[in-house]
Design brief:
By secondary structure, the chain is α+β, with helices and mostly antiparallel strands. It is built from 6 helices and 8 strands. A hairpin with a 4-residue loop joins strand 4 and strand 5. Bound molecules: coenzyme A.
Length: 185
């Protein structure tokens, strides 16, 4: 008797390659770098959910969440690495959120990588994956209004501010991008 496989769950979330980056599946081997670059760094965590949590435990929880997102293909989550030497830089995700009825774009990089356009490059690759491969009609992003690099990334991609929402227990600005606006941007 053959066992029926779920074709959606079996489908791989692809690696995403840009000019300078490779976005690939995160693994438990990344946890140490992930904690030192993001979850254990108060500066990187300033505008991030989990900033009051214990970094190692929080990182392990996010890894579990990312694996679940990938396995259920809802829609993707990646470690961001530097193409030239494979170094771990941070993460990006495009995760469906029931509460808002559409997928959320999220990203973070270790501070040694800030200010060189990597955040915009990674976010654009994830948005392109969402619209061109996963066929989503809209993507949202939430930011603290004070997090200028983050809302600048969203605006570069064509996102527009829609309203204030409560997400992750914070009051955040909700930005959204349609496929059409992304193609035109
Ligand atoms: C948000 C983040 C990913 C941006 O990454 P980055 O690689 O530095 O972003 P980029 O280099 O692509 O820059 C994006 C824009 O922000 C601007 N910017 C960068 N650093 C800035 C700063 N300290 N203050 C104001 N603007 C800044 C850049 O000039 C660029 O805008 P421009 O193209 O109009 O000049 C990075 O700051 C980060 O990981 N922060 C911690 C985690 C986080 O807050 N994630 C977002 C949660 S919503």
């Amino acid at each position: 008797m053959s066992v029926m496989q779920d074709p959606i769950a079996d489908e791989q979330v692809p690696d995403l390659e840009t000019e300078r980056l490779v976005l690939r599946a995160p693994t438990p081997d990344d946890l140490g770098d992930w904690v030192s670059q993001i979850w254990g760094d108060p500066e990187a965590m300033r505008y991030m959910p989990g900033r009051d949590e214990e970094p190692e435990a929080f990182a392990a929880g996010v890894l579990d969440f990312f694996v679940e997102v990938r396995q259920q293909r809802q829609l993707g989550a990646w470690a961001i690495t530097l193409k030239s030497d494979g170094r771990f830089m941070g993460h990006a995700m495009l995760a469906y959120r029931e509460a808002f009825g559409e997928p959320e774009l999220g990203y973070a990089l270790g501070k040694e990588f800030w200010g060189a356009g990597y955040g915009t490059e990674a976010a654009r690759a994830v948005a392109a994956y969402g619209f061109e491969q996963a066929d989503v009609p809209r993507i949202f992003g939430v930011v603290f209004p004070e997090n200028e690099p983050s809302w600048r990334i969203l605006r570069h991609l064509g996102f527009e501010y829609e309203r204030d929402v409560t997400h992750y227990g914070f009051e955040l600005a909700y930005y959204a991008l349609t496929r059409q606006a992304f193609i035109n941007s």
